[in-house]
Design a protein that fits this description.
Layout (H helix, E strand, L loop, with lengths): L4 H11 L4 H8 L3 H8 L7 H9 L5 H6 L16 E2 L5 E5 L10 E7 L15 E8 L1 E6 L2 E6 L3 E5 L4 E4 L6 E8 L4
Amino acid sequence: MSIDVGGHLRAVRLMYGLSQRELAKRAGVTNGTISLIEQNRVSPSVSSLKKVLDGVPMSLAEFFTLDLQADPQVFYPRAELTDLGDRDVSLRLVAAKRPNRAMTIMHERYRPKADTGADMLSHKGEEGGVVVTGQIELTVGGQTRILNTGDAYYFASTVPHRFRNISEEPCEIISASTPPTF
């Protein structure tokens, strides 16, 4: 299968909302180079194309396997959210199958007295969320706080943390973390 490198590059550039000038600046090449590639007037070497794609940023593999014909999924019905939790804690992941996700978005539900486990969690990145209903006890490092409906949190996920629903009512949280943890 042959790929129209110029047309593909133009589509990728537009998908990311970049002008030729902006992509050229980010990639450290002239905007004339971008123009010539997009018009298929020059066939870039692999190293030249990689340099241009670094301005997006996108790997060569992503560039050549990206299906520009299909519109990426934007909306995710409840039934399509992947549950990564257990019986007591539901962790419903948004866009589980989306390629190259840059973040994790979760719809979390904690049954009464449920928690994330005796061991504190710790992973690369940052996370934040908002309590939608109920209350949750959140421990981050040496700090513990009970968060109620409408309260929010944001912290470096490298700091050990734990979530516990200490109430008799379910707790619901919408959270996000980056980079993706699942």
